[in-house]
Specification:
This protein is an alpha/beta fold and 266 residues long. It has a single domain (6-241), classed as Alpha-Beta Barrel (TIM Barrel), CATH 3.20.20. 48% of the residues lie in helices and 16% in strands. It is built from twelve helices and eight strands. An eight-stranded parallel β-barrel has the order 1-2-3-4-5-6-7-8, surrounded by eight helices. It is globular. It starts with 5 loop residues before the first helix and ends with a helix. It binds 3-hydroxypyruvic acid (3PY) and magnesium ion. 3-hydroxypyruvic acid (3PY) is lined by residues 153, 176-179, 216. Magnesium ion (MG) binds at residues 98, 153, 176, 178-179.
Amino acid sequence: MNMQSPEILLKKALEIRSPAIGCWIQTNAPSAAEIMANAGFSWLGLDCEHTSADIKTVEEVARALHGRNTALLVRVSSADALEIRRSLDVGAHGVIVPLIDTPEQARAAVAAAKYPPEGCRGFCFARMNNWGVDFENYAHRANATTIVIAMIESRKGVEAIDEILAVPGLDGVFIGPYDLSGSYGVPGQTRHPIVNGAGDRILAACEKHQKAAGCHLVRTDPAQIQQALEKGFTFVCLDADIILIDRGAREVLKSARSTIAKSTFK
Ligand code: 3PY
Ligand code: MG
C-alpha cells in the first residue's frame, strides 16, 4: 500500500482531524476534475445528487484523477447500497452520503461501503482492483482505506448526531448548509443563528466522538475559511467548480470592462 496515495492521506487527515481542503465537482467534467487536482485540492466530491452525473461520469472522473494527488469522493444520490457499491467499484475512494437522519441510515451506508464481515459490499473484478489483477491486495485493504462521510442536513440528523457519530466505520460528518437551513425553516439563510447553532452542536459532538467535522463554504472569503478552521471544521469544501468558474469569469470580465471604460480606444 502506498502511504502517500491521496486516499490514505485523506483518511489519515480525517482520523487525526487535520485540515483537508476539497471542492465539489458539479460540471460532471473530467477536465474540471483534472484542473482542480492540478490546483492542489486534497479531495474532490463528485456530485451525483444534484447533477446529471451518473456511474459513467464517476468512472471517467476516476480515470482523470488516476495518478494525481487528489482523492475522489462521490456524493451519491441517496444512501443506496447499490449506488455506493458501484461508485467504489468504478474507482471512487469513498462516498459522501446525503440526508443521513438516523444511526440506522448511517450504519447501512457504512455496511454498503465495506466488505464482509464489516459490511455487505459485494466482491468482483472491476476497475478499483485493476480489473482483478490486484484483487487480493484491494480486498485486503479496502475496508481500512474506504472513506464514508455522512451528510447532516436536517434537524432530525442534528438531534441524532451523537448516535450517528457512534456508528463504527464512519469517518466523519459533513454539514449541508442549504438543506439544513431549509429544515430549520430559514431556507438559504445558511448563516442564520439557528443554523449556526445546529453547526455548533454538530461540532461539539464531533469533538466528543473525535470524528472529523465537515462543512461547505460557499462564495468563500478568507475570513470565512479562518472562522471555519478555528471553530474546528477540518473536512472543508470550498465552493464548487461551477462557482469558481462563475467567479473567475465575472472577475476577469469586470477587469476588462473597467479597462475599456478608462481607455481611449472605446
Ligand atoms: C446542502 O447545503 O444541502 C448541500 O447539500 C450542499 O453541500
Ligand atoms: Mg443537501
